[in-house]
Amino acid sequence: MQKRRPSPTHRILVIDDTPAIHEDFRKILCGHRASSSQLEAIESELFETRPPLGRQSHFEIDSAFQAEEGLARVHHALGEGRPYEVAFVDVRMPPGSDGVEITPKLWAADPNLPIVICTAYTDYSWEAMFARIGITDRMFILKKPFDREEVLQLAHALTEHRRPPESTIPPFPISPQPPPESA
User: Fold this and answer.
1) Nearest alpha carbon to residue 90 among 159, 22, 150, 28
2) Cis, bond preceding 114 (omega within 30 deg of 0)
């Protein structure tokens, strides 16, 4: 019987000026995810059962309430040797820099950081956003109000993508190759 390893804990940074948004991310990513509906939750409680969910990741959420504070947290995390695996970044964060302005600076600090731009407004069109940031596979858009499933899917997919390989050791021994014959 193969022993199951515990699910990894992934670091996520939320940069948003609204404290309630940080709480929403914590509820979605750090809360009890055993059910996706109220009916399933009541049924689980009533019958003292938990539906099998498979392996889910655990998330550690850090908060920054302004763009520059978020950039400082990214630098600090890198200095600790514990970089963030994804950042959810709001577009509007008065009075400082907005999410589109800070994104290139976040990538200057950590070039591989996936960034999810979160917005409820149309301050920037898709074209304007890419004109400022550039075309990249490290940026994603999440419209507010966001959906629980969208946040979970993005967090799981992006942290899994960024996670280093579990092992560089091959699963079975490889016999050494004989040296080439000299001619």
Assistant:
1) 22
2) no
Partner residues linked to 115 by β-bridges: 87, 139
**Class of 9-162 per CATH?**
alpha beta
31 or 138, which is more confident? 138
Instruction: List, for residues 13-41, the tens digit of each pLDDT value.
Output: 999 999 999 999 999 999 765 545 566 55
Residue 60 near residue 12, CB atoms below 8 Å:
yes
Could you tell me the residue ranges of all domains in the chain? 9-162
Per the structure block, which two tokens stand in for 1?
Answer: 């019987």
> What is the C-alpha separation between 55 and 113, in angstroms, rounded?
24
pLDDT digits (tens, 9 = 90+) for 141-171: 999 999 999 999 999 999 987 765 554 434 4
Asked if omega into 176 is within 30° of 0 (cis), the reply is no
